[in-house]
Amino acid sequence: MNSDAHEHCGAWIVSMFQKFGMEVSEQRAVLKGYDGTPLMSNNITASYQPQLQQRILLCAHWDSRPWADNDPDEANHQTPVMAANDGASGVAVMLEIARLLQADSCLLPVGVDFVCFDAEDWGNDGVSDSWALGAQYWSRQLSKSNPRPNYRYGILLDMVGGQGAHFYQEGLSNYYASHVVKRVWQAASVAGFSSFFPQEDGGTITDDHLPVNETAKIPCIDIIPYYPNCKASSFGPTWHTIHDDMQHIDRSTLKAVGQTLIQVLYTER
Hints:
Elements: H1 4-19, E1 23-32, E2 38-48, E3 54-61, H2 88-103, E4 111-117, H3 133-144, E5 150-157, H4 171-190, H5 209-214, E6 220-223, H6 251-265
Parallel strand pairs: 3-4, 3-5, 5-6
Antiparallel strand pairs: 1-2, 2-4
């Protein structure tokens, strides 16, 4: 954040969603990081069939961690993370879904909002509410709006492209939106990707879906990997390291998540 690259990336995301026929809006705000840094934040929303009141929320964060503070080499701890998985993968899946929706002559009976949250990854575990700043802001603004879209549910995508990823059922997702968890994991099974979505509990994660549930009052789940046997991190070996790059992205993981979401959307009535 606060870099020319951040601005260029945001503009590219906007242009791609527009290319796929989405109506795009930007929600800019200056948010304060846990260390007092003013963060030039931009939540980007791309809407499919914006005229429809009944809607589905798909979301992911698009900012990147400014420090590789979980890298095994301490010399890299001040190096920015490339964020191919922890950020870019979720946006990539949403862009592909937008492309497929535009290409299909059959319209869904519901609208879809693709929300790219900013300022998720400028956090510190020792400071409460320092994560998911963009989602916090978006949720506060939505809670004040009248009228507001009628979101049936939301699905957050976080780190959905990593090698060896499995998506266990996250704790807050089951607490706030167990019916959505059930729907998505059933869709994964129907689509042939049950091996990526085990019917088992994973950890409990503070992520963008927390303010979406608590403040915006939208039942929202988090599709996020859980690596129970990884010593480096339960989020996988590349999390917050300089190795979160394209060499460690697996297209089969991206396909499993994207095709599962297509299965979910096309069973809406």
